[in-house]
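Minimal example, chain plus thymidine-5'-diphosphate.
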Amino acid sequence: MRSLKNILVTGGAGIIGCNFIRVLLNKTPEFSGRIINLDALTYAGNAASLEDIEKQFGGRRYFFEQGSICDRSLVESLFSKYDIDTVAHFAAESHVDRSIFGPETFVKTNVMGTFTLLDVARNFWQEARSVGLPGAGAPDIRQDVLFHHISTDEVYGSLGETGAFSETTPYNPRSPYSASKAASDHLVMAYSHTYGLPVTLSNCSNNYGPYQFPEKFIPLSILHILEGKALPVYGDGKNIRDWLYVEDHNRAVWLILQRGVPGEKYNIGGENERENINLLHSLIDTVSKKADLDPEKVRSTISYVKDRPGHDRRYAINCSKVKTELGWKPAFGFEQGLEKTVDWYLANSEWIEGIRSGEYRSWVEKNYGARGA
Ligand code: NAD
Ligand code: TYD
């Protein structure tokens, strides 16, 4: 088992990163180290998601640093300041629709940002004894450290009606988002093969849960149901995603950080395949019950809209490797996860207001017209 003392979490103000920090500091007694959260606070990052963590652990076990993973001198200074031994790299531009309208920032953050982190890690973790030795070739890199990269199942492309992605499925990314993530995955593996950097990589399916920015399908639909707005369904609504509760995902990430084998990749999925339209009907039923709405009236607001260009038809994950090799299993069934998610959005209107007041509204209006939140 790896000893983790100082974990650099990137993108810790996004949905997965902030839930990861919360799981580690609140629910993981075997972890006694420090977390350094480097986040640029883009439109998707919200420092308020970690206010309670800041109050309880700030300055002792939790340190927030605002800045970009592309800023090499900042990243270098953080590695030194906190003596980083572990990286959990979540930071990314993560929304497929945005990558279609503006791909450049995806290349900058997801490709160049990942490259910058890898390269700083490689330099910082060089064994001091081999630096500068003539004829020594590439300097040795410490092997008691780990760079873990969080990626997506979307790098594998789109499935037909049957089958599932495994760790050996060839890459076939089809959106600017998934292409940028695929590029970053290749860089991570190249740093392992070429420099011996201890890396692990995970490719997960669609996450859902508390603190998700309301541009993604589940939170967007919950909020639109509550506000009586149209419920946009892309294309014929029969695209399939495999839904993973964010806390289950983060438990898998934690297992990989502790026991993942350097150079290996792990697929993580919820084994909850749903057609979008069926998922939306479940959400309508759950939200209507809890908020005392008439589900049939809500259903009448479903609005089939023009399909997303290049919309991948189906994703499904075979996650037997992380189950058999690391002993992971999801703790939350899909209905339970959805209920918890809906409860969270019902109880956190202040968080929602805070996040929707700014850039999100203007971006959605600009690109989609009046359909936005
Ligand atoms: P998110 O969009 O909710 O959050 C991303 C975070 O990264 C934000 O806090 C943002 O401020 C930060 N960030 C963006 N650019 C940055 C930069 N240049 N420097 C520092 N911070 C920056 O994303 P998420 O859903 O939490 O995704 C986390 C990771 O998981 C990403 O790498 C994403 O590709 C991957 N992933 C997400 C899903 C999903 O369903 N959400 C599925 C598979 C993989
Ligand atoms: P999304 O949450 O954007 O995740 P991803 O594109 O990474 O899978 O979308 C999930 C699915 O829901 C996807 O098939 C697109 C669809 N979708 C809609 O039908 N309507 C919407 O308003 C959104 C945001 C997504």
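The chain has a mean pLDDT of 94. Residues 104-124 form the longest helix (21 residues).
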